[in-house]
Design a protein that fits this description.
The chain has 861 residues and is an alpha/beta fold. 25% of the residues lie in helices and 21% in strands. It is built from 20 helices and 39 strands. It is globular.
Length: 861
């Protein structure tokens, strides 16, 4: 009977032409290959029983009890949500009052927090709103950025989310009273009695200590300490590996493995995707209903699942072109293997300080108050000794079984944040001489929101007995980026702008090694609500503007402000706050800035097109790139546009110039499949001194006779050589295309303009440089402005002129355009011969194009 059942199941799967193990587990010796080379399985049998016993019919009374229990559980969830919201609002109110009452003292007592994880950040945030005068909290964090690891699964196979993966730790805690929070970027190397020792030798005393060192995901390992740029490059490289692989194996069937697998299969339905899991259920730390939902999603997407398999595999994060051997001896080959097996708890510091405090799972043992145990309890009735002034929270903490009821608590950001807040509360209660409060397991601790592909997600809750699931589905067909990456952890509060249907993104990113102050000028439409802000190295800021926004963005360098209220340094009254791009000594610009590299945008027009460009018409101060966010649009016509047709780069600084022959930089929405056509002729020395001496914004010591050789000479330039245009310097009609020179026939490029065009072929160099400098695409996408890209300038408009002309005329990408955009040989041959062709219109209708350009410049100027 069992054999016949297996044959029947086999035939059913053959009819579907899909290799799917699903809820099936392997029986030794029963695995075969069918005629279509599709693996088949039989259900695991028990002893000699040939058929499973008939399912026992449930009585009406039992069903009523189960339904009542389910509704009671739902009420508990509602109670916990209301309780959480009440606590949050209460904390915010207390925080506002706290800023009025907290006083800074000369020698405050310290509460030290090790690790800026979810638990650590919420611990610090809560203490900043509740510590009494005379106390302060010191957060010690070795890394420069907070990494949203819950976003990583989506970033594996779906581009467009990379920029969200990390934010820099702020120099001070926002909205906290002065002096209450101190952030130290350092590594703790040792814990001693009431002292932590930093890697530089500094000893920081503490009265209370919070250990929130968290855990590191095995996938991908080693990324947390890296810079944001390095993390972005890693994921962009991995996205390319996924794109070219035909067969992909994910080892580990937890939430990470399931999310990665369903995302990849949703985006690339033609690929073979397999999940190999060591347990009998997917996501085995949760209840069976979540497993069933995962199995159904895998079946719907035709993902093959192997359960109860522990094959030997490379322990690295990823591996290419190998094979796995299953228990039956069958070999499964792969083009790409991704290791998604679990997390590593970082408890090494406490292990050295108090070895007996470490549990069997590597976590730090705590009591119900989250105080660290000195040793495990000898029996269930014994009260264990604790370090009364040392707490642990988050992934690193192992809760007592008496608190969890033996149920596995998932290691998630939401749980960690709750625990961090309780540790803060108990520290304040200890300072006040009150008894601590025990951690109460919330229904929210054992729930998660799980994506099952690009267009589907489920919300799952359980109390160990009852399980509640609700599904969410996005019916959009072309939604690779449209569904927000909602995963099984929560992120702390960020300074972001809510996206509305009538808004589009404007993202600003700083890849410079120095702080940059952004300038933003809105000329029409609704701007982002700010005229400028500070950007630290490797930091970005996501803004939103109206869909019809017209404006410009630029970077200001070497700025000195007295404070962030908008006034300049008081030691220089009447001067400028920034060396370049200054806009009247204000942090938030209210008008145009000084000569600088500009990113200019017209988000919408009457022809349903967006216009944008990089402009050196006023001058040059920073390398800049514009990334059109077409891949993040819900519009299929936009998402189809090859990124190497729409992402210009201008690098006029020798320090960031790559040698001739360098490949496309992958930081700007492109990859090896869509190589950017880069200018490959200009040399390092030419870029170092392209700006004529009289036009240097920051001139250095003159030669002995006080005369600058013009237009060029052999004098060594400084590394930072911002340049103003001839128009900005002398304001003459022949340079500014005004008066008698206000038409293309009489206004010709100056020496500055020809030099600027040589360095940045895709940038505006003078007022009538429209045809070789304006990018036109269908409207509906946002843009990203990137300061200090490295590599070489692009030569897109000259290389792809006919293709861009066709895109502007038709509003969509043809197969011929896409084929050329991926043809590296063709691009290499044409980019070297590409020259700006003046006088050739980008649109066939000259009068229409002239009208568009006229309207554009009326808005800009």
């Amino acid at each position: 009977m069992a054999h016949n059942s297996s044959k029947s199941s086999k035939k059913s799967r053959q009819d579907n032409d899909v290799a799917y193990a699903g809820a099936w587990t392997r029986t030794e010796g029963s695995t075969k290959k069918n005629n279509n080379n599709i693996t088949t399985y039989s259900k695991k049998t028990s002893g000699s029983t040939s058929t499973p016993p008939p399912k026992k019919m449930e009585t009406t009374q039992l069903l009523r009890k189960k339904m009542a229990r389910k509704w009671f559980y739902i009420l508990f969830v509602v109670r916990d949500v209301v309780s959480l919201l009440t606590a949050y609002l209460s904390l915010q109110l207390r925080g506002r009052l706290h800023r009025l009452t907290y006083k800074t003292v000369e020698h405050p007592k310290n509460v030290v927090v090790i690790g800026g994880s979810f638990a650590g950040w919420f611990l610090v945030d809560t203490l900043s709103k509740s510590l009494p005068t005379g106390w302060r909290v010191i957060l010690i964090e070795k890394n420069s950025h907070f990494h949203y690891t819950w976003l990583w699964p989506r970033m594996v196979g779906v581009p467009g989310h990379d920029h969200k993966s990390a934010v820099p730790y702020p120099a001070s805690h926002p909205q906290a009273p002065n002096g209450i929070v101190l952030l130290k970027k350092s590594k703790v190397i040792n814990i001693e009695t009431r002292v932590v020792v930093l890697d530089g030798g500094e000893r920081v005393p503490f009265e209370y200590l919070g250990v929130t060192t968290g855990s590191s995901p095995r996938f991908p390992s080693g990324l947390i300490p890296l810079s944001k740029g390095a993390v972005l490059k890693y994921f962009q490289s991995l996205q390319e590996q996924v794109r070219v692989a035909d067969s992909i194996i994910l080892v580990g069937g937890g939430p990470v493995g399931v999310e990665i697998g369903t995302d990849i299969k949703s985006r690339y339905p033609e690929k073979s995707v397999t999940i190999v899991h060591s347990r009998g259920r997917l996501m085995n730390n949760f209840g069976p209903r979540l497993h069933e939902a995962g199995i159904k999603a895998c079946k719907d997407l035709r993902i093959q699942v192997y359960l109860e398999e522990r094959p030997a595999f490379p322990k690295c994060t990823t591996d290419q072109h190998g094979s796995l051997t299953l228990k039956s001896g069958e070999t499964v080959e792969y083009d790409l293997l991704i290791n998604c097996t679990g997390q590593r708890i970082d408890s090494s510091l406490m292990k050295e300080f108090s070895p007996d405090s470490i549990g069997p799972d590597g976590g730090i043992l705590v009591n119900s108050y989250l105080q660290i145990l000195k040793a495990p309890p000898t029996n269930t009735n014994a009260i264990p000794e604790v370090h009364t002034n040392i707490f642990a929270a988050g992934d690193v903490a192992t809760l007592p079984a008496s608190l969890t009821g033996g149920f596995s608590i998932p290691k998630m950001g939401r749980v960690a944040s709750f625990q961090g807040m309780l540790v803060a509360k108990n520290i304040v209660r200890a300072i006040q001489g009150k008894t601590p409060e025990a951690y109460r397991l919330s229904s929210l601790d054992r729930g998660l929101k799980l994506t099952l592909g690009l267009n589907k997600a489920i919300l799952y809750m359980t109390d160990g007995d009852s399980e509640v699931t609700t599904s969410q589905e996005n019916k959009a067909k072309n939604d690779d980026q449209g569904l927000p990456a909602v995963h099984h952890q929560r992120d702390p509060t960020l300074r972001t702008v809510a996206r509305r249907d009538d808004t589009l993104p404007l993202r600003v990113t700083n890849f410079c090694k120095e702080v940059i102050y952004t300038g933003i000028l809105t000329q029409s439409g609704t701007g982002p609500g700010t005229g400028g802000f500070k950007l630290d190295p490797d930091e970005n800021n996501d803004l939103a503007v109206s869909a019809d926004w017209v404006g410009r963005v630029w970077g200001r360098t070497n700025c000195t402000f007295f404070d962030n209220s908008g006034s300049m340094n008081s030691s220089n009254p009447g001067g400028t706050a920034c060396a370049t791009g200054d806009c009247g000594n204000l942090v938030e610009c209210q008008g145009a800035g000084g000569p600088s590299t500009l990113a200019e945008f017209t988000y919408a027009s009457s022809q349903n097109q967006s216009f944008y460009d990089i402009s050196l018409v006023d001058g040059y101060n920073l390398p800049i790139a514009i990334r059109s966010l077409v891949s993040e649009s819900d519009n299929a016509k936009l998402a189809d546009i090859p990124p190497n047709l729409v992402n210009p780069v201008c690098i006029g600084s020798a320090s960031l110039l790559a040698p001739p022959g360098s490949a496309s930089d992958q930081d700007f929405g492109t990859n090896s499949s869509y190589p950017l056509p880069l200018e490959q002729i200009i040399s390092l020395s030419e870029v170092a001194d392209w700006c004529p001496f009289p036009l240097l914004i920051l001139p250095f010591e003159k030669p002995g006779d006080g005369v600058y050789p013009y237009p060029d000479d052999s004098i060594q330039r400084p590394i930072f050589s911002p340049c103003q245009s001839a128009c900005s310097k002398w304001n003459k009609p022949q340079y500014c295309c005004t008066g008698n020179h206000d038409d293309p026939g009489s206004c010709k490029p100056s020496y500055y303009s020809t030099q600027a065009k040589k360095v940045c072929p895709d940038a505006y160099s003078f007022a009538y440089d429209d045809e070789t400098s304006t990018f036109i695409i269908p409207q509906g996408a946002g843009f990203e402005v990137i300061f200090c890209p490295s590599g070489r300038s692009t030569n897109i408009l000259a290389t792809f002129r006919p293709q861009l002309l066709e895109l502007a005329q038709t509003g969509h990408v043809t197969r011929a355009i896409r084929d050329l955009a991926t043809n590296k040989t063709w691009i290499d041959e044409h980019k070297s011969d590409a020259k700006p062709v003046l006088g050739q219109d980008l649109l066939s209708d000259k009068s229409l194009f002239a009208l568009v350009i006229l309207v554009f410049w009326m808005c800009v100027w």
